[in-house]
Design a protein that fits this description.
Elements lengths: L2 E5 L4 E4 L2 E4 L5 E5 L5 E3 L12 H14 L4 H18 L3 H15 L3 H18 L1 H4 L10
Antiparallel strand pairs: 1-4, 2-3, 2-5
Length: 141
């Protein structure tokens, strides 16, 4: 089943490891066969993996972008997911972490990435005060 990407002017994406950038006008790209593709908004640089959930996302993204090197990133993924799951008490988030693991073990890395996004959203919601610039050690109330 083809994948249709609608691209904004100048939008970047990764296609099977190659960084591609759209031209100066809106464009549509139809991919006819299976490939690894990530839009610019889903691409994370190593220095952006600066929180527990993001540290789970990053090795999964690396496995997705270069499946031939997935084994090299699996240990990091396992450790980071274990660390994250060890401190979370929310049952829905824990279930999502289990889904991430199942998808990675099944080599469904894109699905695992989408589950990781939910972990990041949860983390951002819980740590929103830190992201807004308040020091993490300041108690409120």
């Amino acid at each position: 089943m083809p994948l249709k990407l609608s691209l904004k002017p100048g939008e970047k994406f990764v296609l099977n490891g190659a960084v591609v950038q759209n031209g100066d006008r809106r464009g549509v790209l139809v991919l006819q066969n299976k490939c690894s593709v990530l839009r610019e908004k889903d691409i994370m640089q190593a220095e952006e993996a600066n929180s527990p959930a993001r540290r789970v996302y990053f090795p999964v993204m690396m496995m997705y972008l270069d499946e031939s090197e997935a084994a090299a990133h699996f240990g990091e993924f396992s450790q980071r997911l274990n660390d994250f799951m060890g401190v979370v008490r929310n049952a829905d988030v824990l279930a999502e972490g289990v889904n991430v693991s199942k998808h990675v073990l099944g080599r469904n890395y894109y699905k695992a990435l989408m589950c990781c996004r939910k972990l990041i959203d949860y983390e951002d919601e819980r740590l929103g005060h830190v992201a807004s610039g308040l020091p993490a050690c300041v108690a409120t109330g």
